Here is the input.
Amino acid sequence: MQKLRWSLTFAGVALSTALGFVGATVTSKPASAVIYCQYVGYPVGCVARAGVVLRPRPVARAAAREAVRPGTPMNRGGPVNRVGRR
Here is the structure.
């Protein structure tokens, strides 16, 4: 039984060493993806496609909100205390 345990331990160490060498020697080639521009200079480092007219990015606007009248709670539909188990 002791001899079997040592042989399995040695086999595991040898296998992990072999896999380590294979992982260190096998390399993948670097990715060379092309990112096309959506707007002028966005995203950074992008490439403009031929024949596409690029425009400046639109200005970010505030999100449309539901009108809140004076005396109305701000957090409509927020956390609700319900009775009973959930």
Remarks:
- The mean pLDDT is 75.
